[in-house]
User: Fold these one by one.
Assistant:
Number 1:
Amino acid sequence: MEETGVRILVVDDERAIRRFLRASLSAHGHTILEAAAGREALSAVAEQRPDIIFLDLGLPDMDGVEVTRQIREWSDTPIIILSVRDREADKIAALEAGADDYLVKPFGMGELMVRMRAVLRRVWQAHRQEAVFQSGELKVDYTRRRVWVGEREVNLTPTEYDLLKLLAQNAGKVLTHPHMIQKIWGSDLIGADHLLRVNISNLRKKLEADPARPQYILTEAAVGYRLRLE
């Protein structure tokens, strides 16, 4: 992934702030997603898979620190706090909840861009330590989010890719249904069991020569799934 074309979720209840960030960040080639409240932000993270989150603390339905804490229960998406609160206690609370950085309003766009690039580089460098997974003919390139079976590139939805990545990073290990649901959707999503089954079925159709007799994504009856490691 490059440092242009980043999917950014802006979470702020002030329309003017969202409009300003959308205009400024879009000019740099980034895709901007928006949420005006905490619960809306939690849904957006699960459904839209942003690369980074810009989060205000003073949201109308829940505090941004709690939003950060809930996101960190199942996602490692980078979070930069953008807040008028400049007390040390507020900064410590947000960072201890799992935020990656903290910027006090008002801020300059130059500083925000530098902070964003620094956070993203740190995350991507950690991911590049094992940038490609391979088992048999299945290959997953974590850096470019691309998947192949043999010479054939496979097009996956964001959720299908995240499921495959989760399985690949734990190849050979059985992942329980609750663990996978927590990592991909969070624990409160209604119908998550059905979503998991549907997405695994779709993955098998795209990856397996015979989806009825899978060679890669194996079912552990009544427990979960395991990606075969060859």
Number 2:
Amino acid sequence: MHESIQSCVFKNGWLGESEKKLFGRQRDLHDPVEMRFGITLERFSATLQHPLPGAQWGGIITRMALKAFENNTIEAVVTLHRTRENQFFSQPVLAETAQEIYDSRGNKPVLSPVLRSLETAYRKGIKKLLVIGAACHLHVLRDFQERFTYLQDMEIFTIGIPCVDNIDRQRWPWVLKRMSRSPLSAMHMEFMQDFRIHIRHTNGMVEKVPFFSLPQELSDPSIFPVACMSCFDYLNSLADVTVGYLAAELRPDEKRQWVLVRTQKGKTLIDAIRNELTCYPEEGKWDCKKFVMNTAEATIASMKVQSRTYSPDRKIPLWLGHILSGVLSLAGPKGIGFAHYSTDFHLIRHYYYVRERFPEQLERLVPRHVRSILEEYDLPL
């Protein structure tokens, strides 16, 4: 616990020197794409030609981990399994067999102590390790690697997931019950590019809930942990390779995922399965300024409210929500435009969350590129 606090991003800040140490430089403030997505060697969308059964989408992260294990690039994986009592709850695990790695597939949208298994790996004498985690985990890991000689003796590969809106485990059942008609059968959940939440159930059915039709009480920032609302590394910029969905075209039958290769280690991981992928270039129009500005004012206003009673009723009826989602899916940003919009939305939201609640932390927490992005929109600092 003491070591984790010493290396926590809320002590050391997001990105900045950590990015410089990993890449030899910080992201270019004159490059609008690199400012949002971080430093990369290559970016593309891809599908696994043979998707893994039971994976959240196609299973690229799990397949990379399995392949790295099969070809002896690594000896074990620091990751998460689902708990027996809840599909969405997680438990940290050091996966040392192919089956244990395979069992780690699927998103767990609750706060998770992934790095708890790092000490187990060290005590077992493992020298080649893969760590799969969110940005906060990998920031801590990078600091651990610098501070502790016993980790410097390990060769560590990292796969990052884009992450921002986790839920406290105690509150998750309450949140899921307000999202889904059948919370007990839900097994996968994600906010998607069609402006709907996709909830996959144990019978294979996918329930789609428009963002606009969520109960008003789910608009309360307090349902998210303070740490997640203060996150400024949505796209996991210190990972060797980041895999998500934001800039991938939404084709449910293809389960496309977005791959951001950041380091040579990341290239090693993706190259090992490249012949198993069908790859596509990034698509979509970059510009989304009008779309961001349409939501910025309301977003900033909601971050200023620190005490409010929210209604349990839906914001708008489901049928109207589906119409709005359909219109935005056609007319709104797509591909890299959607990734641009989603990144900027979260950076704006979190900047004003911190400014209103923890103004003394602004200098420490907020990376320099966030202010450049706010200036693009002429938003007050």
Number 3:
Amino acid sequence: MNSTEITLRKAEIEDRNIIWKILQQAIERRRKDGSTQWQNGYPNPNTVESDIAKGFGYVLTVDGEVAVYAALILNDEPAYSSIEGAWLSNGEFVVVHRVAVDEKFAGQGLVKKLFDHIEDFARSHDIQSVKVDTNFDNLAMLKILESKGYSYCGEVYLSGGVRKAFEKIVI
């Protein structure tokens, strides 16, 4: 009888404090892992409010409780126009940024579920692919992308750093 409801929905302004708490946990986790990613004051509370205001902020909820945050941006990531390498496609795409999981939901495979939901979202809007980048040392995310069938396409430059770029065709 004990089934869990997992839902992807647009973030509301009321979610901003929990989202920022989740991002702070992720920033600290990256720091403890010795990563340079997210260690320079970005993302910050303004990033969260801007994401929500622009309609980019999404939350994955577990039985109504916010568990994962991600920014989903349609067709718009200037850094992706100059890739050292090649994208799989040049049609419409969803960009995934700022993925972070609440610690109390860590290790439950929710980021994989997030990507399932994002791929469904893309398909339901007739969007050809999902593009994502991550730091070379973000081993957890690299593993997830590999397990979800994302192809390594090359390197992009974002916020002063080199990122590994991936794409998956979903239609």
